[in-house]
Design goal:
CATH superfamily: NAD(P)-binding Rossmann-like Domain
CATH architecture: 3-Layer(aba) Sandwich
CATH topology: Rossmann fold
Order of helices and strands: EHEEEHEHEEEHEHEHHEH
Strand order of the largest sheet: 5-2-1-6-9-10-11
Structural class: alpha/beta
CATH class: Alpha Beta
Largest sheet: 7 strands, parallel
Number of domains: 1
Length: about 280
């Protein structure tokens, strides 16, 4: 059964990690998924401290895997820090498909270069945080979410249906080691809440989604430092988005902060390994 057959989705920042997992979950449900991201060549690197680490995954590989899952994957190279590229990307989707049913705002900036001059600065107090980190989180994060939503919403409003999902985290509601991160996630949640208010008359839903501990490539590369006993696969996040998109009563959840594992219990799906991760509480996060 492919509950999202015929539906058009855009997942931003989906070369790897949570974004890739969401694209795969939507493909599993039969959707046509446009996969955006900067990575177009295998092994492109990212700065961590002063070291350049190669990263697995490209938009093309994710698109191929979406198709293998039963949907249709389409690679859409795009740097979400560049408005012209974003506008061109969404113009292409709307030219080819005429509408967008699902937008998942996953792309995020600010994690790069957590150390400066070989000094770990991520968990420093706000007055010792570099200004570029604030700019990265808002330009390639919150602003990118707004820009994509602004371009996707008109076709949803016109058709009186659609779903926008902002990928966020518990830092939007409690302090988690970095003031800038918390403010950015809080803004992400508020963006979903206020978009939901303005979209409600048109039957379009907007929510924030909180994953748990996700077994991304980055997490698994440092697996010895994590307790993975209640962890989640990236594709588990996609199953949550797919279940929400297929729910005829999804408007009842519009404007809310949702937790992936809680949606799994409500909608009756498991992770790809058959496990049923336990929803984290705010106190545990």
């Amino acid at each position: 059964m492919r509950p999202l057959a015929g539906q058009i989705a855009v997942v931003t920042g989906a070369s790897r990690g949570v974004g890739k997992g969401i694209a795969l979950g939507l493909g599993e449900a039969g959707a046509t998924v446009y996969v955006t991201g900067r990575s177009v060549r295998e092994g492109e690197g990212r700065l961590v401290g002063e070291e350049l680490y190669p990263l697995a995954g490209t938009v093309h590989q994710t698109a191929e895997e979406v198709t293998a899952q039963g949907g249709r994957g389409i690679a859409l190279p795009c740097d979400h820090r560049d408005d012209a590229q974003v506008e061109a990307a969404f113009a292409r989707v709307l030219d080819e498909q005429e509408h967008i049913d699902i937008l998942v705002n996953n792309v995020w900036g600010g994690y790069e270069n957590m150390a400066e001059n070989r000094v770990w600065t991520w968990d420093k107090p706000f007055w010792q945080q570099p200004l570029w980190r604030w700019d990265a989180m808002f330009q390639a994060g919150v602003r990118a979410h707004f820009t994509a939503s602004r371009l996707a919403a008109p076709s949803m409003v016109e058709r009186q249906r659609g779903l926008i999902v902002n990928i966020s985290y518990f830092a939007g509601q409690k302090y988690l080691a970095n003031t800038l991160y918390g403010v950015a996630k809080c803004a992400t949640d508020r963006l979903a809440m206020d978009m939901a208010h303005e979209l409600r008359p048109y039957g379009v839903a907007a929510v924030s989604l909180y994953p748990g501990l996700v077994r991304t490539e980055g997490v698994m590369s440092a697996a010895e430092w994590f307790d993975l006993s209640n962890s989640e696969s990236p594709q588990f996040q996609g199953r949550a988005v797919a279940a929400l998109a297929a729910d005829p009563k999804r408007m009842e959840k519009s404007g809310q902060v949702l937790v992936t594992a809680a949606l799994a219990l409500e909608y009756g799906f498991t992770d790809i390994d058959g496990q049923q991760p336990r929803p984290l509480t705010l106190e545990e996060a």
